[in-house]
Fold each of these.
Amino acid sequence: MNIYLAPDPEITPEVIDRHGITPEEYERIRKILGRDPNFTELGIFSVMWSEHCSYKNSKPELRKFPTTGPGVLVKAGEENAGVIDIGDGWAVAFKMESHNHPSAIEPFQGAATGVGGIIRDIFTMGARPVFNLNSLRFGPISSKEADAPANVRHNRRLFGGVVSGIAHYGNCIGIPTIGGEVYFDESYEGNPLVNVFCLGVLRHEQIARGAASGIGNPVFYVGAETGRDGLAGAAFASRELTEESKQDRPAVQVGDPFKEKLLLEACLELLATDAVAGIQDMGAAGLTCSTCETASRGGTGVEIDLEKVPRREDGMTPYEIMLSESQERMLIIVHKGKEEVVREIFRKWDLPHAEVGVVNDDGMMRVKVGGTVVAEIPARELADEAPIYHREATPRPAPEPIPCLPAVPVSEALEALLAHPSIASKAWVYRQYDHMVRIGSTVRSGSDAAVFLVREADKILAATSDCNAIYCALDPREGARVAIAEAARNLACSGAVPLAVTDNLNFGNPHKPDNFWQLRESVEGLAEGCRAFEVPVTGGNVSLYNESPEGAVDPTPTVGMVGLIEDEAHVTGSFFREAGDVIVLLGETGDEMGGSHYLKVLHGRKAGTPPRVDFAKERRLHDTLRALIRAGFVRSAHDCSEGGLAVALAESCFGRAQPIGAVVDFGASGLAREVLFFNESQGRVILSVPASRAEAALALAGEQGVPARGIGVVGGDTLSLTADGETTRWEIGGLHRRWADAIAACMSAP
Amino acid sequence: MKAAVIRFPGSNCDQDCHHVLQHHYGIATDYVWHKETALSGYDLVILPGGFSYGDYLRCGAIARFSPIMKAVGDYARNGGLLLGICNGFQVLTESRLLPGALVRNRSLHFICEHRWLRVEATENPFLNLASPGQTLSIPIAHGEGNYTADAATLAELNANGQVLLRYSDAEGNVSLEANPNGSAENIAGICNAARNVFGLMPHPERACEPRLGSDDGSLIFDSILKTLGVTAAA
């Protein structure tokens, strides 16, 4: 197959502009090269200096995250993913990444390749991927909401396509998708968010590095052949979506989970030998990114010959080969003399592989076609010296106060909230994911946190992803603080101690000062939260330019948090289990209706100040909850979040096909009924406790200074809520059906 | 006793099956790579779940041409116990070691959830510890588990007691509602006429410990061990 070496197009200001490179950036490129770049080099700079690869707009903000801690083995930004100690010589590598723009254009492949990419990031570290999570956000899918029917149909198509794409890739490769979150809101109309998370496990001594070390070591290309798919996807991801974006469909890659499964097994088999000096996946910016980043990390240079790169198509240009984002490819730097080890393993797995280059000592990324040099760029400058922008930030106006709203009977309000797709059961989603392969899922999907038994390490991990974007829209700093607190609370409810955080920052165009302000406030809020819970950020992803013609998405700093459960006996689920158990409420309810789903779902408003989180109280709550769990007092624990106490109590009843009822009396509350039932005050957890242990549990909580009181009893056929002497009852079966069937009903509606 | 788990490229329940046999039951278990051509000294062979060859073309359609499959066929014809789970069941039907075919689920969606199964026949090596009509909770996880066969084949399977498991409710009622994927007559698992080859869509290896939600799947492995006259070591 030939490489097409045509005369390069002339580098005109239009060509430079089309590559998203500013005149100032072009001057910087000229200075680095000491000459004008050729067309291939311009393309290489454009992808490496895109926001997606360089974080040029967000880096000064990201430096605010705490990234160190006693358990941190590989820090954020050092490698493809951070690595955290979990004890006994074992460690976990995990990370979250977005595939928002590809999924907006082609939901199935966009989401599928997102999963493929994050899995490669994890096994590149030498870790065996053991589970996935995801955080998804779409425009409304219910025709009950004030949205045009055509939009609703399109949102359903995106939602259905993304879920199928994730299922297609994750199920085939055999990594269980065990949890996550799905929200529906107008702000994601036209620009859905698809954030995917993968966690892998490895021994400390197995950590693999992405550095091109050892002058003279051969460079291998392994995995799928390079084609023209996904050309310059990283640059595509760093632009706003417009009507014309559909024409960018070729920038969306096509995934082959079968090939990735082979690549995963072959790479892990190879990494278990002593043949590998460095390894890096070819994700965004493909061959370009992997060569210059490994050289930059190694303080070396890398020279490759494109004639030797396995290719799918005839007549590709060097520009196309370097910028292709064909999936399922890796670059491996091999210790000289061990080449045959690589060839033997990749032959066994029937995967393409080729020695394409060599590590050298001149610091250059040199790309040749046979004897002709087609690109020659100092690797470190290309990989690490993208311009950094300190963007202007202008605060958005304070949120509108909660207006006077017509009263809705609480009986109707609870039914409406439970049937809203953001709150309703996600079984329609996780039923399509293989969440049981690798025989480690010990808490059923739908609980506050996913719990997974990692058999190779004999460790029990808990993981959750959280972000309430309504809060972030109203107050990005407080919303981010709440996201961390809620993630930590979800882990505590499962019996886990938090270890570390990965984040996915989804925001609008950073050139708009009010968008950039949201990003800055959110980052600072996340950083405050991480410090408060002593959890380092180990890496993540920044996705800017999340805008459709209707405007930017609500600021969405998604948090993925991982924790460890010491003892299997401490694994706790969210659902009531035994009739007669006492229901205990930990924490206090304030007069905080702002940002609630009640206002959003019943009144169509995002208004008011979101609830405040008090980190000192939160920590005390989580520590006390874990103490109660360790003491054996807790049969179930459920965090109180969207929809407030009434929704949390109803959800606690929905653990099985035949739900179980509950009778609750809040006594004299001093709050309006809808505030007590539906506000979203932070720092609250609903427990069920065996009646014989209730007194001891309340006493223990009291000693720790955590407000705790018995509010009711599990059992019966109704959910009965009484406050200030007034009672509302729901037949539990009917309530459960509304919650259980809501999403399937939307998806089968015309 | 010695067991083998066949590994096709794309198998992904191989490690789970290996774990259950090796660590849960303490049975010496080998992985056998699909490029091997010989299969000797084994008392039980498992074709595990997964997406062999990416399930491209048709589930199991390429795997049947793997070099090892000739040895697997010979092993089965010589009476060896052969268990095909999920993708393994699909490979067995494609290889004509079991009759019928598995096509896309009625809903066109992949489905992963615990299902109830009713035991239909116990006079076989795979369910001899169960009672007829007993119900088992075992998860399914497939996109193409809709069992189909012509009327004559179904009649023959029924007449010979080759239908071993049907999808049912917890009480053992076999109904349309209890059928997750559209399978003919709610069929979840069948054996061959000689009763030494068993294919099923549900995953018994995922239901061997109460902490995973059910240990009903161990009834199948316990029955196999009883057939082979082995007492589990673990």
Amino acid sequence: MKYWVAFKGIVIREMWRFWHQKARLVSALVRPLLWLVVFAAGFRAALGIAIIPPYDTYITYDVYIMPGLAGIILLFNGMQSSLSMVYDREMGSMKILLTSPLPRPFLLVSKLVAGAIISLLQAYAFFLIAWLLGIEVPLMGYVYAAPALLITALMLGALGLLLSSFIKQLENFAGVMNFVVFPMFFLSSALYPLWKLKESNEWLYWVSAYNPFTHGVELIRFALYESWNPTATWVTLVTTVLFCGVAIWGYDPKRGMQQKKKPSK
Amino acid sequence: MSLALNVDSLRYRYQQKWVLDNVNLQLEQGQFYALLGPNGAGKSTLFNLLCQLLQTRDGAIDVAGHSTLKAPRKALAALGIVFQQSTLDLDLTVQQNLEYHASLHGMSSKASKAAIERELARFELIDRKKDSVRSLNGGHRRRVEIARALLHEPAILLLDEASVGLDMPTRDSINQHIRGLCESRGITVLSSTHLVDEVLPEDHLILLHQGKILLDKPCQQALDDEQVGDVKSLYRNLTTSGEAA
């Protein structure tokens, strides 16, 4: 019972924070909408996407990038959570979580799930705007997308958690954007199908094919079109567990909260 | 009288430097303990070990009879902690901050509401519960933090330089309030400070200097033993001579 109470408390707290930081929702939506409205409009005429699974017909570019842009919302929200954890640690409020009488892995996973739920809400807000702009998917696709979005959000949140356990200062966060977020986004199938990338650079193709974010995006894409991509599901799940495990190890008090400080013995 | 906190032969080092060296403490229930020491004496490290933000196997810590190594969660449940740096979420209201803490201690909604009302009333903050923490002044924020630390009715309250940055009247008021808790609720308080004027003759004084306990006895008794009139002189005598209690 107390685990449920604590989990609920952590989720509600994230909701409150999200509610108090309305600019966060706006900025989370502006980025993908710019891509959808401006970038995709420019490329729409130039690029048509051939018939590739899960699509059963030719599609326009804006239809293609819609799942990838949902992915970018999850990616940036995962990083935002990571940023907020580094901030919380610097400001001290992380201590309240870490000194509560519950197992630390449970607390960190609860925080991860809470962040994933916020990501999910943002992704659906984006789907709603995309639908208003005329980009539709099958109605049941929106339902099937929920678990796909949740798993992907958990994976990206776990990556954020992992980064936050190793980033010592808030100032180091710019490096995360340059060395983690942007390569992860551009070296994925979010903006272009991987076979197109293979035509121009095989090396980049293989890097993108092994990028876990690619699998997250494909998981969402297939779910939106009422299909299931088992490879993407397994890669996303395994990566989530892996990231999560390392992050929990990173927050182990035996390693110390402050990385510079080494425990005795 | 049973022990609320027992620290036995505790040692801790950062890199090659021992910041706590053979620390022994026995804190009795319902007593107020002032932990006095200059910056860098090892007070915050001791607190981080007590609340398990750091861990060591050099020595043992028992909180309300629970070992931090063998029963870490039971030990944490018996602690109320106020950190040196504010740990309130500025974006949330007072009530939301307290509800979050109560949920982390597994308190039901009903129990948490009652406890929040009780503690806010005690600290005269009832009318501020819907206010954002950001809108509170430093003194009120500290009161909220202490109220929060008491929500789950801990056996021991740890205050890590809780009065830092507060003006004199606010400091006095908070300190008076905390001392009252020992009598009214039988709670043990360990309050660290580097300000000698915060230690009263009736307190039990623990002096930590360069990672070692130099003194652990009632303040008045220490004053008499050293034949000095105030805590400042006592502090100066002991830290310059390095005399152990």
